[in-house]
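Feature request disguised as a bug: please show the residue count (442) next to Sister chromatid cohesion protein DCC1 in the output. Example input:
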Amino acid sequence: MNKFLNRPLTPKRSKVQRSIGESEKNQENVIPAQKSKKIDEKSSNEILHEAIFDNEAELVHQILSKNRPFDQNFSKTMTKMRFAPQSEEYMLLSCDESVISQFVENQRLTIRGEPNADAVLCTETQSFPLKIVESATTVLLMKEMLKAPVEAENETAAANFEFRKIDAKCYALGEICAKSEILHGISRLKDLLHENELEWVVAENSKNGKIYGMSDLLKYVQMSRKEIEIAIEDLPVVKMSNGKYQYLSHKYRGELQSLLVEALDNDELTMENMNFEKLRQIWPVGNVPNEIIHWFLERKCVKNSGSGENFTIVEDELIRDLIKIVMYAKNKMGFRHFQEIIEKILPFGMKIQESHFAGLCEFEDTPNGEKSIIYLSPEDLPDAISDRFRHLFTIRKLWQMEELRPYFGDLFKSRVAFDKYLVQHLEYTLDQQNQLFYCGLK
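Example output, currently without the count:
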């Protein structure tokens, strides 16, 4: 008989199922042990980073040497770079040679512009538009050129770090454009000065609005100091004794001119013999500070040669100011009605010439055959160049260059800049005599 047949059977394993809780408990006992082992083991990169952070030069050199076993001249002096505290306060700007020649040594450069406006780089006398480009690439700038470390003469010297500073970290790149020949910031300038206009009645002078000095204006207006001074020359703005600028309202100027014309008609004053004391007598002290009188003599008069402090009122300036006073209130009226009003307020003996309307008013023929006059003083026209052109083309469809020029004297700093703008941005047509007329924006 086969002996295997008589072999006792192996007792079967009990098929008792372990509880889920017990199974999970056993698993919990195993898994954490494996995790603990992984946590305790640090990678070479982690060890290297910690050693660099802790300035452990020997350990860093040892780790790096293992990766370069055939480099017998591996330097023990390693370069470590770090950022300067002000490293994010810089912007990388590129510019043409024609632009960089405008900058001089020790000249102060200022970037001006509010968050919702385009940036402008300003010197004391000029402004340069900036084109800013947000870049996904970070550019690091260093004053010291990054070179290979110089090995110490002592071959047995210990491993060490040399430190180099990163002076700037740039996310935004910019381009400095050619200097601007247009006073783009004049709109913002006028808005600020209009906040607290000088009114005739002292009680109406608001103390709520802010009065700005030059340092205040430079914070908000994208223009150089010289450009702001040029813009103010074309505006009815007076610099007061405290250094602040105040805009003379239309009503205020109307009161000044009314008292002046009355004094001229009553022979209290003469056009050719004007001075501070005589104007002080006709303009009340409570309404007219001394600074206003000095401003009037400087802007509206010419000094008589060899006559001390005597001045002559410029007749053309006075007539244009009176036209502006009449037209500002109406904006548009029949020319016959305008003539009736202006003849009543003009000083005796003065006559209006066609030249007095240049850059101030335009005429329009009405269906009933009567001519009307339209107020177009640059002071009250849109300050954006394109908007001003659109407004003028709604008044007339065809303009010659010299007819347009007086309406833009406050925005363009030179005749060449204005001519160049017209050629680049305006459509034109020729009449039968080959005369060129501008007819709209491109």
